[in-house]
Design goal:
Blueprint lengths: L6 H23 L8 E5 L5 H9 L4 E4 L2 H10 L7 E4 L8 H4 L5 E5 L2 H16 L5 E7 L15 H9 L4 E8 L11 H13 L8 E3 L6 H6 L4 E4 L1 H4 L7
Parallel strand pairs: 1-2, 1-8, 2-3, 3-4, 4-5, 5-6, 6-7
The structure holds pyridoxal-5'-phosphate.
């Protein structure tokens, strides 16, 4: 029997481990190098204490959707300097300024306007010798009006715009398929993202594919995901959803 004074921390640590094992097994089954698939722990609506518990279990990459919530947590967790923040929610161009200096990766560039604004702000970061800002372009493959992301037909031009920004380092593409309880519904959207990537020069130009969440990570890994974004399976159900 294992007794602990921190059952909450142990629960989160166990779940982080379960997700690591799950990712490794899915990669092996797909004939991929398990090290080529990394985990972003999505902590939106969960407290900083939950992030600390996952951090204590060795997790370093965390994803948040909302700039304000992200900024507040980053301030609370400043004592964890090697923690890497990923912005995975829609970024409005007027919020670019507040994240460009310290976020590790922005997964959700979807318009020229945001790319240019973020590029300008990230250039200041580069000038301060903090390096370029890693970004991915979000693709809306389903055409759902409610979803952010650029249309597949706009992608090539947006790739050029982002690549023209010296403060930004374009590393790949991201997508969020339509919500469904059947994880096979997501497969064509994941396959489409990979196909778009391959048309644009393949992994040499766009090495990262950010796709797959708690319920469909296996399918995403089979289709080539390099970042899976998992929230619920680590931190539990969220109380509110925005
Ligand atoms: C909330 C969210 C996730 C995590 O979803 P879970 O189903 O909780 O794993 C992943 N990606 C994005 C873009 C999200 O908004």
């Amino acid at each position: 029997m294992h007794f602990s004074s921190d059952p909450f921390g142990d629960l989160i640590a166990d779940r982080v481990q379960v997700q690591r094992d799950r990712i490794r097994r899915a990669a092996e089954r797909a004939g991929r190098d398990p090290a080529s698939v990394r985990l972003v722990a999505v902590s939106k609506f969960h407290p900083a204490a939950a992030i600390r518990a996952a951090y204590a279990a060795g997790q370093r990459d965390f994803g948040e959707n909302y700039v304000q919530e992200l900024s507040a947590k980053a301030a609370e967790l400043q004592d964890l300097p090697d923690l890497r923040w990923h912005l995975i929610g829609h970024l409005q161009s007027n919020k670019a300024k507040s994240v460009a200096g310290w976020v590790h990766t922005v997964h959700t560039i979807s318009t020229t306007k945001t790319a240019l604004e973020l590029g300008k702000r990230a250039w200041e970061r580069r000038a301060a010798e903090q390096g370029t800002l890693q970004v991915l372009i979000e693709v809306n493959g389903s055409g759902e009006f409610s979803k952010s992301g650029c249309a597949p037909g706009e992608l090539e031009e947006l790739v050029h715009v982002v690549e023209s920004q010296p403060g930004l380092a374009l590393v790949g593409l991201m997508t969020v398929p339509p919500a469904s309880t059947d994880d096979e519904v997501a497969r064509p959207f994941f396959a489409q993202l990979r196909a778009l990537r391959d048309d644009l020069g393949g992994p040499a130009r766009l090495p990262e594919l950010s796709m797959g969440m708690s319920h469909d990570a296996e399918v995403a890994i089979e289709e080539g995901a390099t970042w899976v974004r998992i929230g619920t399976a680590i931190f539990g159900e969220r109380k509110k959803e925005g």
